[in-house]
Protein: Transcriptional regulator, TetR family
Organism: Chryseobacterium arachidis
Amino acid sequence: MGLHERRQREKENIRTSILDAAFSLAKTEGWASLSMRKIADAIEYSAPVVYDHFENKEAILYEISLNGFHCLHIELLKAQREHDNPEDQLKAIVDAYWKFAFKNKEYYQLMFGLGMQCSGKGMMKEEFSSFQDMLYDCTYEIIKKKGSNPENACHSSHALFSAVHGLISIMMMRNDDIPSTMNKTTLDETVSAFIKSL
């Protein structure tokens, strides 16, 4: 391996260490307490080394959130591929989204700015629309099967996304006084009622 390749690999390793340390710190201390200094201390480098790889904390958070959207997209695709008809696909996709949110709270909070500023403000994340796109596709297919007006698919799927995201947000921000089983039941009932209404 040449000198250039070695330096490139070292640079990539430091970058990965920075992202891993930031995510680990967020899990133990929360996103709000994260700082460039804490990340530098965690990887045992000086702060300027961290700034060599990322312009600021926001750039680190943006990178981590993209990874979160990528992981979510994989889970949604797995759920979708387990079923053939759009009704079952829709239920499975919503269920996978719900499970991802609570299995990966730190990711979800960062991805959607729950209790904090949303990372990458003003920057479009291609992965951001994955869930909404899948909801739209299933909704459109169900409407088509039922012979309803396909022009309603966009509005209807957006309403379902809002309901699902809203339930998750409420539960994450007020989980002490709301039983998780009640919210999951509400979610399942909402999806069933949504399918019937199309």
